[in-house]
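Help needed: design a sequence for this.
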């Protein structure tokens, strides 16, 4: 009788384990299906679209639409990195010429002012010691002192991306078909800037440093309108000018170069400490 009861209890336990396993597998399958339904693909933002303007007339005319990459012209601005770029550009070309003379460079003081012993005075070997009035300066500035340092590579890249995104978001970035203007008269550029409300200072950027003659001659006598090739574009110059005007080729070249730098695979070697 005991063996029969033991056998039936074992069958009941086996049946319970099967039911629990079946229910747990069913719950896992249901949870997996729910997770698959919850997971959604990230939203893909459309590229930024800007008007292509003309420069051959003072009145603005739309010539088409150009699409700009979001990762270059639509990134989240990093104000801290922009500030780092501005400080780096201000300091790497600054050289301090403050110079203080040491006791060896000050005139006079060649002999001992009084004997070492016998007069009850403190011991001195020269009246040009830093302890004396008119003597040398200890630990003073020595010229020339450079303030040069190198900002990390990707901080420079992100500085350009952030500044371009800020300019576009503030409607201070414009795309033109070319820099060809009909005359070299500076008044034509003044009227054009005033008509289009581009602000007191404008920076024109082209893909090449060989720019059309008329705009080169026209901007020569206007201090607040400047020309720059793509390879010289920097954060300080973009922030210094109110409006940034890019040609179509310049915008495409900037987008291609910055996209390449943002996706390069040798980042670790580029972030090593700069050695002068």
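Sure. Designed sequence:
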């Amino acid at each position: 009788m005991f063996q029969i009861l033991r056998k039936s209890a074992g069958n009941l336990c086996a049946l319970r384990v099967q039911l629990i396993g079946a229910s747990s597998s069913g719950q896992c399958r249901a949870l997996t299906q729910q997770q698959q339904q919850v997971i959604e693909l990230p939203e893909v933002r459309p590229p930024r679209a800007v008007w292509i303007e003309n420069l051959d007339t003072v009145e603005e005319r739309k010539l088409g639409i150009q699409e700009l990459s979001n990762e270059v012209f639509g990134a989240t601005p990093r104000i801290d990195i922009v500030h780092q770029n501005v400080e780096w550009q201000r300091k790497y070309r600054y050289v301090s010429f403050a110079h203080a003379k040491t006791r060896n460079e000050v005139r006079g003081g060649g002999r001992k002012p009084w004997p070492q012993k016998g007069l009850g005075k403190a011991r001195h070997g020269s009246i040009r010691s830093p302890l004396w009035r008119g003597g040398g300066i200890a630990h003073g500035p020595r010229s020339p002192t450079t303030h040069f340092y190198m900002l990390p590579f990707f901080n420079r890249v992100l500085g350009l991306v952030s500044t371009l995104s800020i300019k576009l978001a503030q409607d201070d970035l414009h795309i033109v078909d070319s820099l060809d203007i009909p005359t070299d008269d500076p008044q034509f550029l003044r009227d054009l800037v005033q008509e289009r409300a581009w602000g007191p200072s404008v920076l024109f950027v082209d893909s090449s440093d060989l720019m059309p003659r008329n705009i080169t001659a026209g901007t020569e006598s206007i201090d607040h309108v400047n020309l720059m090739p793509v390879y010289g574009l920097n954060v300080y110059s973009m922030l210094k000018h109110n409006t940034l005007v890019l040609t179509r080729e310049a915008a495409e070249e900037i987008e291609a170069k910055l996209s390449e730098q943002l996706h390069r695979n040798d980042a670790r070697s580029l972030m090593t400490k700069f050695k002068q």
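The first strand starts at residue 48 and ends at 53.
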